[in-house]
Every structure is written in C-alpha cells, then in structure tokens.
Amino acid sequence: MDETIARTRDNIVKKQALTYEEIEAERPYGAVDRKLYVANLHFNMTESQLRAIFEPFGPVELVQLPLDLETGHCKGFGFVQFAKLEDAKAAQSLNGKVEIAGRTIKVGFSL
C-alpha cells in the first residue's frame, strides 16, 4: 500500500501513525470528558435543583435526571455536563462532601 497522500513539486508528504499520547494531546475535550455522574440523589430531586448545586463551579451545559416511568420521580442518579473540563474537575470535589435531603451524594466522571 502506498502511503503517499500528497505530492508537490519539491516534496512528498507521507502519512505517519500517531501515538495514543499524541492523539490525546491534540484532541479537544468532548462532552463525555466534561460529564459527571451524580449518584445517591433523593427521589424528589429535580433537574433545576441539581443544576443549582453544580452551577457555582461553572457554566452547566446539560442536566439529565432519569425518571421512573411509573412514579415520575428521580431514579436516584443523574448527569451534569459542564462547558469546561476544569469546571467538571472542580465539581468532582463534591464527592462525599454534600448531603441533600439526608443523602450524601457521590460525584464522579461519567464513563
């Protein structure tokens, strides 16, 4: 297989395989990288309440709070997506430190 991808009058440019580290260093952080998983939420928690807890750390792009189809209540977990990776990292510091309605919330990066 010919790896030549472009020819000019004076040179030939060839593709070169990048290492994982090089790819990661160049890659902009995507939504998945900025999304936190929040667990042990009270079943009466709302998206607006969850947003209010995390907004002090920075702009929140998205809040998802799965609801039980039968009761319409929170299933006890949710997701918070930040605009910036640094803000998501800072918000992760809430893990095990905040109690809401008698429940200590758990916060970590979403997989």
From TrEMBL:
One of its GO terms (cellular component) is nucleus. Keywords: RNA-binding. InterPro entries: Nucleotide-bd_a/b_plait_sf (IPR012677), RBD_domain_sf (IPR035979), RBM39_SF (IPR006509), RRM_dom (IPR000504). Signal peptide: none annotated. GO terms for molecular function: RNA binding. Residues 34-111 form the RRM domain. Coiled coil: none annotated. PROSITE patterns: RRM. One of its GO terms (biological process) is mRNA processing. SMART domains: RRM. This is RRM domain-containing protein.
